[in-house]
Amino acid sequence: MPPTRRQAAVGLLAAGAMGATGAMGATGARALASEPDDPAPVIEHPDEAGAETELATRESAHEHMLAPVSINGRGPFNFLLDTGANVSCVSNRLADQLALRTVDSAPVHTLVGVRSRPIVHLDNLQVGPRERRNVKAPALPIKGAEVDGVLGIDWLKGQRLVLDFKGRRMLIVESRSDRNEPGRTVVVPARRRKGQLTIVDAELSGRRISAIIDSGAQGTLCNSRLRDLVRAQEKRAGATGPPQSVRMETLAGEPFYGEAVFLPFLRLGGLHLGNVPVTCADMHVFRIWNLENSPALVLGIDLLSQFEQVALDFGRSRVRFDFKDA
User: Fold this and answer.
1) Helix (H) or strand (E) holding 92
2) 54 — alpha (psi -120 to 50), left (phi > 0) or beta?
3) Beta carbons of 87 and 156 less than 8 angstroms apart
């Protein structure tokens, strides 16, 4: 059956409501929207060609999935799995530890804006049997010692990524067809935008909206266009109240502020969710994806991890949600 929201939703309820200016928990890393002109191809080891990639993951303190990654034959290091990032990156700390050579600088887009960051050279970056050589990766000031880098969707190239929250693992497999299984799974059509998958079969109380799958965001975000729909509904129902401010920051230490909002009714394909907690903030990421003028959501790990599995098929532009057992 469909999942229910957590008793302590990340970034909104975990720290507790503290009034109009109360500080809330930190959020996760944000996507990189600038991809190198010559991304290194993914190479499978000859004896592993065609085989699926399966990696055990662990959960970070902020509930992100961390996958083991090797760089230049060393590791494994903990990389945050970010379906909202189209380029993988390393932390400044890891770049220093491995003495990675800086070869350039380039604008890197994050949740809150764009800044020039150093680009370092990796001889090879390996995820299970999959290897990329001569990789150019941005180096970011990721806070804390828990996360060594971000693993983006540049590894997928038309394949299927399975986030198995129940089994604490990730899989990269060939694209394949799916079908709905009433009471067990929902398959939702999507479209590609800046490399990410944007769900188009989504509604908020009967109004069509866009939603982006983003395992790198700790909490689910919405823009002001979507918030205005919710506030108009609340006003008609006589249930309005003062806005509640939310303070958060990215893993790179970039602070930002938003407004706590509860979505009364959200549909993703055939899946129905009620009273979904989100943070409203007109962040840079909505402008990157050209969604600043239409109601939109960024579905974070707080909502995604309510499911047993979430499978993103970049070959067929479909997203499959597997419900947890009752």
Assistant:
1) helix 92-97
2) beta
3) no
The residue length of the chain stands at 326
Within 10 Å of residue 154's Cβ, how many Cβ atoms?
21
- What's the first-to-final CA gap in the chain, in angstroms? 6
- Token output for 272: 């129905």
Pairing of strands 185-193, 196-204: antiparallel
Q: Among 135, 127, 131, which residue's Cα sits nearest to residue 79?
A: 127
- Closest by CA to 11, choosing from 273, 224, 258, is 258
Instruction: State pLDDT tens for residues 68-88.
Output: 999 999 989 999 988 888 889
- What are 8-39's pLDDT values in tens digits? 222 222 222 222 222 233 344 344 444 444 44
268-308 pLDDT tens trace = 766 788 888 899 988 888 888 888 898 999 888 888 888 89
Burial 313-323 (b: 16+ CB within 10 A, else e): bbeebbbbbbb
Q: CA-to-CA distance for 120 and 95, rounded, in angstroms?
A: 8
Supply the pTM of this predicted model: 0.80
